[in-house]
Design goal:
9 helices; Fumarylacetoacetate hydrolase, domain 2; 5-stranded mixed β-sheet
Length: 284
């Protein structure tokens, strides 16, 4: 299944068409996107056997954040060895955790206003939780996953790195600094949920010396230092994960700071994860 947020209502997306979940279920699920994840087990049981009506075509510009109001947003730092290497930092022995404040969440294809000349990109797999989860092991953690989406962890590096202590969460939480989508994809839709190709292509002024189009990131989630189920299990030893919670799982090498570049007005970044689709952000 692919669950999206179309103009504020939960929908199932198939082949460029959308079915309104609340209408198809006679009001049993939705219409608020978060409500679907709060009833995730019952919803998936219903969806397996439901006789859905024909979907309606939709405009991708109407897609909003698949979960616009999660109770918690977690982000994991330094979770790919190649990214730790380019950052000249040691591989972590434990999860490096911060948050992106919920006001930074946005739909998949938003325009991002650059607050400074020091904004960076980080393409990430986003995990959506489908069950309340506390103190679970790795096997139990897998069962709590509702699905995956594509996310961007944009960062204003000067705010993030200013002293006396780093301000990770603040520097990563400007408006539209956490776009994600286009839909939440259940793991049964993916050939290998543990090995997804993660790519980012930058076009515009910053890519001018590369013919106008530059593949700046190309990695795989198979290289995560802490795989998805381990992230969930480790987080759950401290916090209670709730339905609809988001986890940004880290980024592979190729971020701007590692390349000595930052985003400029007129740039466009397209982030792609195999099986999940693509999201595109423009910068002004």
């Amino acid at each position: 299944m692919r669950v999206a947020n179309l103009a504020g209502r939960a929908v199932l997306v198939t082949d460029g068409t959308a079915v309104d979940i609340a209408e198809a279920s006679d009001g049993q699920f939705g219409p608020a996107p978060l409500a679907v994840f709060e009833q995730w087990a019952d919803f998936t049981t219903w969806a397996q056997d439901a006789q859905l009506p024909a979907g309606a075509p939709f405009d991708e510009s109407d897609l909003l954040a698949p979960v616009p109001n999660p109770s918690q947003v977690f982000a994991i730092g330094l979770n790919y060895k190649d990214h730790a290497d380019e950052s000249k930092l040691a591989y972590p022995d434990d999860l490096v955790v911060f948050t992106k404040f919920a006001s930074s969440l946005a739909g998949p294809n938003v325009t991002v206003e650059l607050p400074s000349e020091f904004v960076d990109y980080e393409t990430e797999l986003v995990v959506v939780i489908g069950a309340e989860t506390y103190k679970v092991d790795v096997d139990e953690a897998r069962a709590s996953i509702a699905g995956y989406a594509i996310g961007q962890d944009y960062s204003e590096r000067m705010v993030q790195r200013r002293g006396p202590a780093p301000q990770f969460s603040l520097g990563k939480s400007y408006p539209n600094f956490a776009p994600f989508g286009p839909a939440i994809v259940t793991l049964d839709e993916l050939d290998d949920p543990d090995a997804l190709r993660v790519e980012a292509v930058l076009e515009g002024p910053t890519a001018e010396d590369h013919g106008g189009s530059w593949q700046v990131q190309n990695g795989t989630t198979a290289d995560l230092i802490f795989p998805v189920a381990q992230i969930i299990a480790d987080l759950s030893q401290v916090v209670t994960l709730r339905p609809g919670d988001l986890i940004f799982t880290g980024t592979p090498a190729g971020v701007g700071m590692g390349r000595g570049i930052f985003l400029k007005a007129g740039d466009t970044l397209t982030s792609t994860i195999s099986g999940l689709g693509s999201i595109t952000n423009r910068f002004v």
